[in-house]
Amino acid sequence: MSEGLSTRHGWPSLRTRLPIPAAVLDLGCGCGVPVASSLADAGHQVTGVDISDVQIERARRLVPAGAFIRADAAQVDFPPASFDAVVCLYALIHLPLDDQPGLLRRVVTWLRPGGWLLATTGYRAWTGTEDNWLGGPAAMWWSHADAGTYRSWLSEAGLDITPRSSSRRAQAGTRCSGRSGRAGPAATATSAPGG
Ligand SMILES: C[S@@+](CC[C@H](N)C(=O)[O-])C[C@H]1O[C@@H](n2cnc3c(N)ncnc32)[C@H](O)[C@@H]1O
Q1: What is the pTM of this model?
Q2: Engineering a disulfide at 13: which of 36, 44, 126, 171 sits with its beta carbon 3.0 to 4.6 angstroms away?
Q3: Whether residue 191 has pLDDT greater than 80
Q4: 72 CB less than 6 Å from ligand 1?
Q5: What CATH number should be reported for the domain holding residue 64?
């Protein structure tokens, strides 16, 4: 477990809830470090998805135990009940806003009963570009709704948020309501800084 994941991404709230090994989908996995690598180090079976060829190539090299797919998260699909958990950290907020509620609904279908979603969401609604992101020459584009809208979308997708912290970057445990009389998936969400 890298310190980066344990301190930055709300991982502690999810870690103790997973069976070992768990099948975990890392949506918007980037180069696979620290999220996919930490999950693999913890004994989980990780599938990573990212839209960037370069990031997928890096992830395959840096996390040889993982399976990585280059795909748009807004388009990718998996069979029902494929995963014990889906993590989507600092990635959902880079998708067009219109694609996000549908993606959350699809994620729920990929979760097994009792599964979890850990996602970074928006805190304040904002869509726009920041030039010279992190001091580099590139601009970064974001699109996110406010925290209340994400709570509604998670709820409508079949997930209940319990409990929730008031911190901007805090974790919010999310419990999915039962479906078809079964124990449903569950999730935890983190709020990204608003624009
Ligand atoms: C800020 S990075 C986060 C990486 C990793 N989740 C983490 O927490 O370290 C955002 C990642 O989302 C990916 N991404 C952006 N839009 C995407 C999309 N539509 N489908 C899949 N990945 C996407 C980017 O390529 C980038 O690797």
Answers
A1: 0.86
A2: 171
A3: no
A4: yes
A5: 3.40.50.150
